[in-house]
Amino acid sequence: MKAIQFSQYGKANVLEIKDVKIPTINAGQILVQVKAFGINPIDWKLRSGAIKAFIPLPLPFILGSEVSGIVMKVSDDVKHIKVGDNVYGRTQHAYAEYVSMDADKTQIIPAFLNFAEAASLPSGSQVAYSALKTMGNIQKNQKVLIHAGAGGVGTAAIQIAKYFGAHVTTTVSTSNIHLAKQLGADEIIDYRATSITTLEKDFDLILDSVGGQTQIDSWDLLKENGTLVSLVSDESAQFSPALNKEFHFMRGVQGNPFEVVNQLISARKIKPTIDQVYDFNDIAAAHIKSETGHVSGKLVIVI
Ligand SMILES: NC(=O)c1ccc[n+]([C@@H]2O[C@H](COP(=O)([O-])OP(=O)(O)OC[C@H]3O[C@@H](n4cnc5c(N)ncnc54)[C@H](OP(=O)(O)O)[C@@H]3O)[C@@H](O)[C@H]2O)c1
To answer: Of 160, 295, 298, which is best to mutate to test ligand 1, by the most ligand atoms within 8 angstroms of its C-beta?
Structure first.
């Protein structure tokens, strides 16, 4: 099969299409013919070598953590998925024509989603659910601030926070104001025109996927006993006890929220937001776009 791999850390041009063996499956797994996969910032962070001290990779390496496709083989112990089903979920090594997946992290694609839309959903929506519900314990009528509401995580987070009945403020750049409105945000801050330090200081929960000064400024916007969940760093965690405010640095999806997230997707409470769809051969262009840090929704590769 064809797979996109890299044999050395570096820029997007280290990604190469190679012939490799089709993966084998173990107990609890299925083999999926890949129809689409999503691109996430972790992909180019891993590819560049920027985080190799924390997450060293065996090279050559095939990236890719979310996928959709058609089931080709099923391990004997898997009962809820059969050959021929259209499925989606989180996995590893999705930049390929075939991928093995854990059946318990895989779901049938709701009939109204195409493969590209389905592949765009698992990562951002499960991360957003974990951050808001599992870590942030979001509650009805709370005031929630979602930084970077236009990103892969942010677009899902706005919809999930609205599902839980929160009042949602989000930060975006000018071109994404309309998108944030469509997703249901109650208040939209153009972060380039308005400093977040001018916002009312009464948030119950803040989701930070930006870090740096944005994270530092967020402390002051939280109520006493409020919670700051960061996806990017714990650089200002030391402020937490003194301010009597809670801090979580979330690394990866917590638990396996895909069943509950799949219910929200099936009920159209979380809808896909796709910025751009690329061909398999255009992987370098997709990485270069993701590295700009200004994707509106998700980038997806179709095969
Ligand atoms: N720890 C974890 O478990 C975990 C999981 C997933 C993601 N992450 C991390 O979280 C970050 C976001 O991920 P993602 O998938 O959402 O990225 P993404 O899809 O690339 O989106 C990034 C978004 O950030 C917005 N943005 C950039 N600078 C901003 C600022 N100063 N204020 C507000 N918005 C800003 C951009 O929107 P505009 O064009 O409107 O500026 C863009 O839509 C990445 O660093 C990723 O690695 C961590």
So the answer is: 295
295 lines ligand 1 (CB under 6 A): yes
Distances in Å between the Cα of 73 and the Cα atoms of 1, 22, 184 are 16, 12, 40
Low-confidence ranges of the chain (pLDDT < 50): none
CB-count exposure of residue 19 (10 Å: 0-12, 13-18, 19+): exposed
> Of all atoms in ligand 1, which is nearest to the CA of residue 41?
47
Residue 207 identity: L
Using CA atoms, how far apart are residues 34 and 46, in angstroms rounded to an integer?
21
Indicate the class that CATH gives domain 124-249: alpha beta
| Whether domain 2-121+272-302 has CATH 3.90.180.10 | yes
Q: Ligand 1 in contact with 40 (CB < 6 A)?
A: yes
Q: Tens digits of per-residue pLDDT, 252-277?
A: 999 889 999 999 999 999 999 999 99
With contact defined as beta carbons under 8 Å apart, do 207 and 133 qualify? no
Amino acid at site 99? V
How far, in Å, from the CA of 26 to the mean position of ligand 1?
35
